[in-house]
Amino acid sequence: MQPFAGRAAVAGIGMTALSRESGRSELDLAAEACRAACADAGIAPREVDAVLSYHLNDSAPVVQVARALGLERLGWHNDIAGGGTQAASILGDAAMLVHCGVARNILVYRALNGRSGKRMNTVSTGPQERYTYGLAGPIPLFALAATRYLHDTGLTAEHLHAVVAQSRQNAKANPRALRREPLELADYLSRPYVCTPLRTVDCCQETDGACALLVSGVLDGPRVRAVVRGGGPGCSSMDRAADVTAIFSAYVAPMLWEASGMRPSDVDVAVPYDAYSWLVPRQLEDFGLVARGELGAYLLERRHAWVNPHGGLLSEGYVHGLNNVAQAVRELRSAGEVALVTGFGGSYGSAALLVR
User: Fold this and answer.
1) Which of 47, 57, 163, 184 has the largest CB neighbor count within 10 A?
2) Of residues 144, 126, 90, the one with CA closest to residue 349
């Protein structure tokens, strides 16, 4: 067990409306989400003593957000440079602050104008060495890994459709979701490719919005049981990888079960980072939730309907994964007991377990 296990709770969540053109600054979005998280936790912003965020040079700095919230004194604060890998591990950063006695109430937020402002799915967002291999941006990179994964598992476009169509079905009852319309197989197959085998609907949305969590050592809520972060030479370092399909979960899943003392069968809420449709079966496999040989039938029979019950990044919207963590909290507040959340950045990433 990690020393901070069970010490911190996610006591509040807050989100702005999600859109493709907010017409607002990242600062305005962040402040709204943070105020909502504080109100949800039943505290005033002035009771916050630490603020954390992550970004890709596309967000509002924590000192500006603290000022907008009216914090007269700001304690521990950090702008963490990084993308989706942080979505789960930032819970660990907050939990460690609680465990060390540095802070009692910590705001965690992510704000971006991911559609109307700086867009991630461009050449400029990838390391320059990728261009040598013709991988102009993240989608071609992960499409190459997806091609090999489908070959190795025997999964097809029909299985990818099952992932996307189920996310739409799950989002149907979610008023926050931007994509709620059904997606039949013929409609899916008619959508254009971005980079084979990934069609436009296989890729997460580009969204304007913000999400915030209030992590506390003195308030109640779903508890942070375990958080791990790591990776290896998989689909982010293809020239050095024995297996180009190995995403972060291949490395962090064993770490998570060892750190938590729990098992895959304990999980009843799965909220994986679904930036691309093929990442869902890959993570279900890596975390021991579904065996590789059973994936095909599992997806076609829609037994994965319990995964990302809000529609995930594919259908609700994209706040760099933090909105998935917020959904895990909602699920644990109602009926769930153990939630798995993840953060993806290719072969590097993070995972966390929250318990009711």
Assistant:
1) 163
2) 90
Closest CA to 225 of 187, 184, 267: 267
Residue 272 CA to residue 267 CA, distance in Å, equals 12
* Distance from C-alpha of 148 to C-alpha of 142, rounded to nearest angstrom: 10
Q: Nearest to residue 328, comparing CAs of 213, 173, 210, 179?
A: 213
Rounded mean pLDDT, 317-334:
97
Nearest alpha carbon to residue 35 among 9, 63, 14, 61: 14
Rg of the Cα atoms in the chain: 19
Phi, psi of 37 (to 5 degrees): -65, -40
Q: Using one digit for the tens of pLDDT, what is the confidence trace for 84-108?
A: 999 999 999 999 999 999 999 999 9
Measured distance CA(270)–CA(141) in Å, rounded = 25
E-strand ranges in the chain read: 9-15, 50-55, 76-81, 105-113, 193-195, 198-199, 208-216, 223-231, 269-271, 338-344, 348-355
Q: What confidence score (pLDDT) does residue 99 get?
A: 98
The single residue of 54, 109, 276, 318 carrying the catalytic annotation is 318
Selected catalytic residue, list 188, 273, 276, 298: 273
Taking the C-alpha atoms of residue 210 and residue 229, their distance in angstroms, rounded to an integer, is 23
**Residues 81, 83, 85, CA angle at the centre, nearest 5°?**
105
| C-alpha torsion sign, points 230, 232, 238, 239 | positive
Check if 251 is active-site: no
Q: The tokens 């979610």 sit on which residue?
A: 174
Q: For residue 342, what are the contacts with CB-CB under 8 A and spacing of at least 6? A: 87, 88, 248, 249, 271, 272, 273, 283, 321, 324, 349, 350, 351, 352
- 188 given a catalytic annotation: no
Enumerate residues 6+ apart whose C-beta is below 8 A from 121.
137, 138, 139, 203, 206
Give rounded-to-5 percent helix, strand, coil for the chain. 40, 20, 40
Instruction: Give the H/E segment covering residue 150.
Output: helix 138-153
